[in-house]
Design brief:
Elements: H1 2-13, H2 19-66, H3 70-77, H4 80-108
Helix pairs in contact: 1-2, 2-4
């Protein structure tokens, strides 16, 4: 979607008759592409970090589902700290990605 927007913007730059407006538009296109690429990279990084955490969480849920007894619960309590740490790290990555998206959106206003 963004690729089409950037292609259209780039094609329309040639329509300027004012050299200064053309240069300004080219600079803004380049800067916007750069910010957009950083945003996409941050979102992909957050997405990649989610998969292992979600897989571990799914494992824990399945284990509880299949072995719901006192011994199983006691065994999982020892892993609770690790799960909390992983979830907190995931939340921080997601917040960073959201902040990148918000910063990008603010540059468009």
């Amino acid at each position: 979607m963004a690729g089409a927007l950037f292609e259209e913007w780039n094609a329309e730059i040639g329509q300027y008759t004012s050299a200064s407006l053309k240069r300004d538009s080219q600079k803004k296109l380049s800067a916007t592409k750069s910010r957009y690429n950083k945003l996409v990279a941050a979102m992909k990084k957050a997405s990649r970090s989610m998969d292992p955490v979600l897989a571990a969480f799914k494992d824990q849920v399945l284990y509880l589902k299949h072995n719901l007894n006192a011994k199983a619960i006691a065994a999982l309590e020892g892993q609770l700290g690790t799960i909390r740490t992983d979830v907190n790290a995931l939340i921080k990555e997601m917040e960073k990605s959201i902040a990148e998206a918000d910063a990008f959106i603010k540059t468009l206003e």
